[in-house]
């Protein structure tokens, strides 16, 4: 899709709560914003989708071209994406389906949008089917009125992602143990579900600790110099946890995790160190942030 035409579709989509005319009139369309694998910049792409329960399915067809589209390569490198769907906008974890599940979901897509079968016939490349989870309509979002609330929300998300990755990893090892001969289960490696979730966790953790080291801790030290030892300890723990994060990121560099046993060991190390770090930070830092409003007030003009 030429850039100028693509931008006109994006503009029309946003101006009309997801409805566009021309060749896409009446089509189910969403906007997917990925982060550039190399540039780190946001890139928005209009894509057709098929709804499957609480999931949206998009296909990296690239109109049957022999190579994957840029947006697909971006989400493999940075799995957290932004989805615009009519008047709804949300973050989602982008997970390409694998093996038999990919084939099942592709058949689901083709049943509703037969043109994707033509795109598959046009190329030797297996067209990836990417699953985007919709937000849970029953989820309650706690009110965030202070910086303490915001910190707790971030920590809760980090703990939750660790819990998910840990559970999925242990399920993999249980399947491997029950597989004849104790070898690899039918699905190779640890699977894209685990990889994408853990990679998103690592990237969010790095961003969080960088923001604390660069902004929050220096500001707080100015008001609480008697807690210098606390901030020094937190920074030292950031360095230690960063080493584990780097080890995990290296194992996640390929689409298939080639060393599942090492991944499991590093994940256990991350869980132990990060859990202790978050507990210590909340014990000493949260009381200092309870009266700091969030979001911060805009600067006086």
TrEMBL record:
User: Which reactions appear under catalytic activity for this entry?
Assistant: oxidized coenzyme F420-(gamma-L-Glu)(n) + a quinol + H(+) = reduced coenzyme F420-(gamma-L-Glu)(n) + a quinone
Q: Which family does it belong to?
A: Belongs to the F420H(2)-dependent quinone reductase family.
Segments spanning the bilayer are none
Task: Indicate what this protein is called per its UniProt record.
Answer: Nitroreductase/quinone reductase family protein
Its ancestry begins with: Bacteria, Bacillati, Actinomycetota, Actinomycetes, Kitasatosporales
Gene3D superfamilies the UniProt entry points to: Electron Transport, Fmn-binding Protein, Chain A (2.30.110.10), nmb1532 protein domain like (1.20.120.520)
Task: Tell me the organism.
Answer: Streptomyces anulatus
Query: Domain Hemerythrin-like: where?
Result: 149-289
Write down the InterPro entries for this protein, in alphabetical order: F420H2_quin_Rdtase, Hemerythrin-like, Split_barrel_FMN-bd
């Amino acid at each position: 899709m030429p850039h100028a035409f693509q931008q006109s579709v994006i503009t029309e989509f946003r101006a009309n709560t997801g409805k566009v005319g021309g060749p896409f009139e009446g089509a189910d369309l969403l906007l997917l914003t990925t982060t550039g694998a190399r540039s780190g910049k946001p890139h928005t792409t209009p894509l057709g989708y098929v709804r499957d329960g609480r999931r949206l399915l998009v296909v990296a067809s690239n109109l049957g071209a022999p190579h994957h589209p840029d947006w697909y390569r971006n989400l493999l490198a940075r799995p957290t994406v932004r989805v615009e769907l009519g008047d709804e906008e949300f973050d989602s974890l982008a997970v390409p389906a694998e093996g038999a599940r990919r084939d099942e979901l592709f058949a689901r897509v083709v049943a509703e949008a037969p043109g994707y079968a033509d795109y598959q016939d046009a190329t030797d490349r297996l067209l990836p089917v990417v699953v985007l989870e919709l937000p849970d309509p029953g989820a309650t979002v706690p009110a965030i009125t202070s910086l303490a609330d915001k910190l707790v929300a971030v920590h809760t998300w980090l703990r939750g992602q660790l819990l998910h990755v840990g559970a999925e990893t242990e399920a993999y090892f249980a399947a491997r143990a029950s597989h004849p001969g104790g070898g690899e289960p039918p699905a190779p490696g640890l699977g894209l579900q685990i990889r994408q979730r853990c990679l998103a966790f690592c990237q969010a953790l790095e961003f969080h600790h960088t923001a604390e080291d660069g902004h929050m801790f220096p500001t707080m030290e100015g008001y609480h110099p008697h807690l210098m030892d606390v901030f020094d300890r937190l920074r030292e723990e950031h360095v230690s946890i960063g080493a584990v994060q780097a080890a995990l990121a290296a194992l996640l560099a390929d689409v298939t995790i080639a060393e599942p046993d090492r991944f499991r060991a590093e994940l256990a190390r991350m869980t132990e160190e990060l859990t202790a770090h978050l507990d210590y930070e909340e014990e000493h830092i949260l009381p200092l942030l309870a009266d700091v409003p969030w979001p911060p007030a805009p600067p006086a003009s």
